[in-house]
Amino acid sequence: MIRHTVVFRLKHAPGSVEEQSFLQGGRALADLPTVQRFEQLRQVSPKNSFQFGFSMEFDDQAAYDAYNVHPVHEQFVRERWQSEVEDFMEIDYIPL
Amino acid sequence: MIRHTVVFRLKHAPGSVEEQSFLQGGRALADLPTVQRFEQLRQVSPKNSFQFGFSMEFDDQAAYDAYNVHPVHEQFVRERWQSEVEDFMEIDYIPL
Fold this sequence. Notes:
Distance between the termini of chain A: 11 Å
Oligomer: homodimer
Number of domains of chain A: 1
Largest interface: A-B, 26 and 25 residues
Structural class of chain A: alpha+beta
Largest sheet of chain A: 4 strands, antiparallel
CATH class of chain A: Alpha Beta
Number of strands of chain A: 4
């Protein structure tokens, strides 16, 4: 199992229509064939400046790679992520 | 539900006895009364420099607060975390 997470901050005003539209657009990632346990999360620790997180799990690296190159993922990155995300960090976990 | 996560890098050499001892010590946190779904994880993304993660869930803020002030947690922070962790970031999530 590989858990892929990304924590991020949007350029949009909190609570704005644009923010909701971005999150709604991201839900399409949940339906990609190798994605499991997709979650959209709100980041609430005051110890960092990120606002949201996406988390998903893959069976193995091949499943992760298939997600990365899936046209729906690539389109989301190109058309939404690159222009609407102010800052982000990717963290990937495997069981210890 | 609040998911508390911390991603970190140790001062110890990878694979060292000291690294294993630190992780073993951290397992005591899993048994604290309000901690659920405790996980020790290896961070594998090359896009950040952290090595490990702990993840746990709490029913609510009161359960999280009880963990924070529990003597076993405070002892672990004071006797292990503060001297053996080189860098870390806390990320807390709630469902969106």
